[in-house]
Every structure is written in structure tokens, then in C-alpha cells.
Amino acid sequence: MTKLYGAIEAGGTKFVCAVADEDLNVVERVSIPTTVPEETMTDVFAFFEKYEVESIGIASFGPIDVNRKSDTYGYITNTPKPGWKDYNFLGEMKKRFDVPYAWTTDVNGAAYGELKRGAAKGKDSCVYLTVGTGVGAGVVVGGKVIEGFGHPEVGHITMRRHPEDHYEGHCPFHKDCLEGLACGPAVEARQGGVKAYDIPKDDKAWEILAYYLAQACMDLTLILSPEKIVFGGGVSKQEQLFPMIRESFKEQMKGYVPTPDLDDYIVHVDLGDDAGITGCFLLAQEAAAK
Ligand code: ADP
Ligand code: ZN
Hints:
The chain is α/β, with parallel strands linked by helices. The protein folds into two domains: 4-108 and 273-289, 2-Layer Sandwich (Nucleotidyltransferase, domain 5), CATH 3.30.420.40; 121-270, Nucleotidyltransferase, domain 5 (2-Layer Sandwich). It is built from nine helices and ten strands. The chain has helices at 37-49, 89-96, 106-117, 178-182, 184-190, 204-224, 241-253, 262-265, 275-289, and strands at 4-10, 14-21, 26-33, 56-60, 101-105, 126-131, 135-141, 144-145, 229-232, 266-268. It has a five-stranded mixed sheet. A five-stranded mixed sheet has the order 8-7-6-9-10, sandwiched between helices. Helix 3 (106-117) packs across helix 9 (275-289). The relative contact order is 0.16. The protein binds adenosine-5'-diphosphate and zinc ion (ZN). Residues 156, 171, 173-174, 177, 179-180 line the site of zinc ion (ZN).
């Protein structure tokens, strides 16, 4: 009989739930709006009731608790999203479906998908950097997603300011951290509210954004030396950004660290919106094999 695996990509706007076979042929996939746990999770449970899966891989918006020794392992922790703060996501799943689980962040899931099947295929390490409503990064090194006492929060690293940028920043905690200066809403606020996709391709806004994203790539390179940096998220659909990020990276790095050919090193996602769910399936299969 064909073995089936479950995947949940839990995002701030929607949950994607899917079931696939060993070869990742998707049997069914649904998208459930993220409202409150009582509503959203009821639909999630109902979806998985229909199948007998070997294991489930979950990649969730965060912050989440990934520390196996913690009493709140498997919880969504300090989110401002109503109803989800301190929600025992993994525990509620386990109560209903007694199978092995993989539990990680949304960006780690996407990083894993891109490493195994996407832009970083064949590599052992990569960073997946998403630039959308927020900024975040998933990190895979030596084929394993990086988790310590918690998970990396690359979106909130400190930035050196672009000399011509006087926008105060969008992060409620730090104002002008990476997310505060480079997320979609920051790009739009800096432009006086013009939607990011309506900003002309040759506008200074993109140069300023590229400067910050290049700086993030430089820091990630200096700390992790990944084999590839893969960009995802709505804002990264602006293709003109890529040559600008590479150019700015070269300028800011000043030749200190030799890197792979930048056209190959700083790239756009390959799996598009499927990166996360693909990563979840692969992590689920690994959890089942353990
Ligand atoms: P989310 O982060 O909520 O999953 P997105 O990755 O689409 O969703 O990020 C939303 C942000 O990205 C918004 O600020 C939106 O204006 C911006 N955005 C979405 N698509 C594009 C695009 N094609 N070009 C530029 N900005 C975009
Ligand atoms: Zn911040």
C-alpha cells in the first residue's frame, strides 16, 4: 500500500495542509485562512481525519518553541496574532494524530525544501531569506535545520543605515532592524504608502532596499558561510533587485571573503510558493524513518 505523509505550512495569513505519497505526489492540498485557533485548527484536524498518514511535518510562523527540553516545546510563543500566543500547536495535533512529527519554523521548512529540491539542490547548506510582510531566514547546515535554545531570528539583526535613508523603521521592537527597514510594509511606508509593486523599477527605493538585503547577505556569509542564499517572499519577485543586491554585496564586502560566483550565490527561489510545503513533506519522511 502507498504510504502517505502530511504537511502543514502554517503562515500568518493562511495554513496550507497537504498529503502526499513517498514521491511527493500530492493527493490533496487545501488552503485554510489563519483566523483564530478554534476555527483554523478545526479545519486542519478535519483535513487530516480523512487520511492515514505515516508522519506530519509542520513549519509554522513564529516565534515558536523548538527546544525539546522545554515545557512549551511545540508552542507558538510570543506572537501578537490574537489567539495564537502560547498556543500548543504540536500538542493539539498529537492529541488527535499519534504519529511522528517534524516541527520547525516556516522559513526553516522552506530552506529545507530549497536545499533538497530547489535552488540549493545538491548542496549541504543554504539560507532561505524571505522578504514579505516580515523578513526572516531559515538556515540549513550539514543537511540539518539550525536550532539552538531557540531558532534564528535573522529578521531582527542590526543594520548599518543607508546614508540617504531617513525612514524610522517598521519593527515594533527595534524600529530599524533588518525587518524594520526591509520588509514590504517598510518599503511602502518609506515611499509614503505606495504599494511595493507600484514603485517604478528604477526608483531609489530599490537601491536602498538592495543595500539592506546585501548587508544581510554579507552578515550571513560572514557568520555561516552557506553555499547559497535563496530569496523568497513577495518583495523578492522584483527581479531588478538581484543584480543590485549582488553589486552592493560586492561593494560592502570589499573583497574580504571570497564567495562563489554571485550570480549563483544570491538567487531567487526555485520552488516558488511550494518551497515550504515541500520541506514539510521531506522533514515528515525523515521523522517517520527515525
Ligand atoms: P506574506 O509575507 O504575508 O506571506 P508576501 O510574501 O506576499 O506575503 O509579502 C507581502 C508583502 O510583499 C507586501 O508588503 C506586498 O506589498 C509585497 N509584495 C507582494 N508581491 C509583490 C511584488 N510582486 N512586488 C513587490 N512587492 C510585493
Ligand atoms: Zn526588529
